[in-house]
Every structure is written in C-alpha cells, then in structure tokens.
C-alpha cells in the first residue's frame, strides 16, 4: 500500500442481519446510510493510527473496490475511517474504540 491508503476486507457479518424481534433484514435493505466493520490487511507508509489486524468502522459506499485472488477488498484513505477497534494495550486497559 502507498501513502495514507488502507486495504480493508469487509467482515462477513455485514450481510443480512436480524432485528431485536427476530425478523431477518436482507443486506440489500437500506433504511439509512449504514457504516460497516472491516479488518485491515495492509497499510501505507504514512498511516499513523491504524495497524494491520485492526477492525475499522467506515462507510463502504465511498471507497474503491478491488478484487484480490477472487475476493473483494476496499482501498480507502486513513481519514475515511470513523473508528478503530483493537486489542492494543500499550496505551490503555483494553478495547479501544
């Protein structure tokens, strides 16, 4: 990856989901713009706050999709990431979000 780019693989649970009442909501149903979670597979030289292996929250509609070995991935700028969930403990006590 180059500069401030991040390579993300969408999490499989971002497909269909269930409501609290048990109703299945298909992935194609769009009530509002929905953010998605993904796993970081690679980062560029200028990326400062995200590491490979982190889970990130982002808007998948605004990103560039690429296919690597038959699987879909997204390429985005670090600034397009809304949140980072990681197990890093060097600056805190646990989950960082």
Automatic annotation (TrEMBL):
<dbReference type="Pfam" id="PF00166">
    <property type="entry name" value="Cpn10"/>
</dbReference>
<dbReference type="InterPro" id="IPR011032">
    <property type="entry name" value="GroES-like_sf"/>
</dbReference>
<dbReference type="InterPro" id="IPR020818">
    <property type="entry name" value="Chaperonin_GroES"/>
</dbReference>
<protein>
    <submittedName>
        <fullName>Chaperonin</fullName>
    </submittedName>
</protein>
<dbReference type="InterPro" id="IPR037124">
    <property type="entry name" value="Chaperonin_GroES_sf"/>
</dbReference>
<keyword id="KW-0143">Chaperone</keyword>
<comment type="similarity">
    <text>Belongs to the GroES chaperonin family.</text>
</comment>
